[in-house]
Amino acid sequence: MSKFVNCVVCEGKVEVSDELLEGEIITCPDCGSELEVISLDPLTVAEAPEVQEDWGE
Amino acid sequence: MARVFMFYSRLRAEEKMIIEAAKAREIPLESIVVSDLAWPNDICQRKDVALCRCIGHRQNLALALTLEAKGVITINHSDVMNTCSDKIATSSKLSIAGIPQPDYAVAFSLEGTLKCVEKMGYPVVLKPPVGSWGRLLAKVNDKDALEAVVEHKLHLGSQHSAIYIQKYVDKNGFDIRATIIGDCPVSAIRRCSNHWITNTARGGEAQSYPLTDDLKKLLVDVQRAIGGKLLAVDVFETYNGYLVNEVNGQPEFRSSHERVTGVDVAGKIVEMAWTLAQKSDENDF
């Protein structure tokens, strides 16, 4: 069964995988915002933070 | 019994690959998001093994230091993170070990930068000592551009107050990204681009590249100089031999995927961490 979460930016419905993991980034198909999964139970997303200066390898 | 952990802040392709590899091998890997936890904590015990995979250098370093204070074996150790996260520190360690690298210099002012480049010759590349994904790199071909770039840098705050200058190397459209796990070089790719920046994070295309004996020897020397159990080394192939451009201590390895290299990098990382955990049970550190 498909699971959905509401985009925190545009309130669009975002379908998510059953194998979703905490910390994963998903993209809202309506507005293109990047959303970070901050909790699986309950399923909660927040706007993903912008890239910071010390990010990367 | 010692356990294996992976701590992360953002789940990138690499962390997913590590989780999948552990599942496929039935290696018990505990994956934990660091963000909302209090540190230090009792999640890990002495002799446990932790893959530190935070996306930001500062958080990853803090994580490693906190874990090491409890006797946890970190991959990579904070000393290695400190070296690899700072290009000046990396170049210094490579110099001490006599490992070939492009000419480099460090300056603290416009006047100092002009003196360095006068000696080195144009073109040069200015890099932030701390930075990734090819961000804020500047290839500078003449004095006018150098003065402008340095003036801008010196207004960007203390992170940019030491200017790292590298002689530009003509790399014929590609560089080499090699991965070392434990103390063994395991894979190499060629990163190709029409742009002088060939990072795959900036659009460089990954192709297979042979892990030749010469390249392996160089990589073993790099591992001995820098330390660490998981490194990605960026190398230029020049007419005069290989030059080590950068060493990454918290590498992203999606571009070194098995379909390009024939090597399951994530699988080898998990196996290495698991072996370390088993050894740590046997040895009293």
From TrEMBL, chain A:
It comes from the Bacteria. It holds the Pfam family Zn_ribbon_LysW. InterPro entries: LysW (IPR005906). This is Alpha-aminoadipate carrier protein LysW.
